[in-house]
Design a protein that fits this description.
Number of helices: 7
Radius of gyration: 25 Å
Number of domains: 2
Oligomer: single chain
Helix content: under 10%
Length: about 400
């Protein structure tokens, strides 16, 4: 931790936000590999996380003197465990990671073919983990502690990659870390070699993001870009104007047609087109998926749908309209016979008809839907202006 922050740790103005704004205190006290010896100290400069992946970068000190820069990966492994399970195998105590680094100038280096990063399961952090240092050499006049030296090596929990050395020398310049995880090629305890094409991967399973490639073509498949890795973005800040982000158009969003392409929902017309500005997506960390701005023209609708394993918040910023929450999702709205808000039947994306409460919304209104909940929103035909809202969506995990 920066000593200037440590010096004011007990100041009342600081303790209010101690964990909210300064969680680096947690990481500096976390178990890292070399902390098994008191001779080593870590300065964790930056931390990024996404879903089950955590990446730290910073410096390591030995006996008070700078020793090496490092990047540490931690991976909980739930998705990979499931991918291995369906192949009737176990993940057990290790896995491997493909890794690519990108610096501020756009230069890239990645793990060599055939030599991924070996991750070992660590009971202390309940995750598969490894640290990559720019050098494993002790200082000219010193030596490594034997307890830490035992962790070092080609596939050790503390390792190095010659290809990464130059970029790690300037660890602050590393802007992006991309990762994909796979099971070991040797299946233990039997020692069988798994054919390359049968090795199970977790490369951010079916994750996509939206891009304005064919922005004016409603619901164009080209606008959905597949992501084949986890992206941890170490950029520290963004300044954007929403109006500078090209909107992507969608026809009959969250509404399905029949086998002949005909829509039974009366709201689903060929001109039921709305737009979405995808403000932040892969830049976000933790369990966040996107933050976007949605514009619904007068008379148009975003169909009712259910969230499972994700949560979403709508915040209305302009216009007026009607939102829908399934009866019972917010108990304060009463049951279907409560007269305060009209009860209507609405078609739910892929799930048939359900009963909803029809709720008036305007600037400042919020609709918050937890996993298992159902919602939708529309701009009324008589409206004179678009209905705009921003939405946050994140994994329930």
């Amino acid at each position: 931790m920066d000593p200037r922050l440590a010096a004011i740790a007990d100041d009342p103005a600081n303790t209010i936000f101690a964990v909210v704004f300064f969680p680096d205190r947690i990481y500096h006290q976390e178990y890292l590999n070399a902390t098994r010896s008191p001779r080593y100290r870590y300065n964790v400069q930056e931390v990024r996380g996404y879903h089950e992946v955590l990446c730290m970068k910073g410096r390591v000190y030995l006996d008070g003197a700078f020793l090496s820069n490092f990047i540490r990966i931690e991976y909980r492994g739930t998705r990979l465990t499931e991918a291995v399970r369906v192949k009737d195998r176990f993940l057990r105590s290790s896995c491997a990671a493909w890794m690519r680094l990108t610096d501020v100038a756009g230069n890239q280096v990645q793990t060599p073919d055939g030599r991924p990063v070996a991750l070992r399961y660590d009971d202390w952090v309940n995750a598969y983990q490894a640290e990559i240092w720019d050098s494993l050499e002790p200082p000219p006049t010193g030596h490594h502690d034997v307890s830490v030296l035992a962790l070092m090596g080609r596939d050790g929990e503390i390792t190095r990659f010659a290809a990464f050395e130059t970029m790690l020398k300037d660890v602050e310049s590393i802007r992006k870390v991309e990762l994909a995880f796979r099971e070991p090629s040797q299946y233990y305890p039997f020692g069988n070699t798994i054919p390359v094409g049968d090795v199970a991967w977790d490369n951010n399973y079916k994750r996509t993001h939206q891009a304005p490639i064919a922005a004016q073509q409603p619901s164009a498949q080209q606008n959905t870009v597949e992501d084949f890795n986890y992206l941890l973005d170490f950029q520290r800040g963004w300044y954007k104007q929403a109006s500078d982000v090209v909107p992507v158009m969608y026809r009959n969003a969250m509404m399905l047609g029949d086998a002949n392409g005909n829509y039974t929902n009366p709201d689903a017309r060929p001109d039921n087109i709305l737009s979405m500005r995808w403000l932040f997506q892969r830049e976000l960390g933790g369990s966040m998926i996107f933050f976007h701005e949605v514009t619904i023209p007068p008379g148009k609708v975003e169909g009712n749908h259910q969230h499972v394993g994700s949560e979403e918040l709508y915040y209305i910023i302009e216009g007026q309209g009607v939102a829908y929450l399934r009866v019972g999702d917010d108990p304060s709205l009463g049951d279907e016979n409560d007269p305060r808000f009209k009860t209507v039947e609405r078609e739910v994306f892929g799930l048939g008809m359900q009963k909803f409460k029809e709720l008036p919304v305007k600037a400042g209104s919020m609709i918050y839907t937890k996993s298992g909940g159902m919602h939708g929103i529309r701009n009324t035909p008589e409206s004179a202006m678009p209905l705009k809202f921003v939405a946050f969506l994140y994994h329930s995990a």
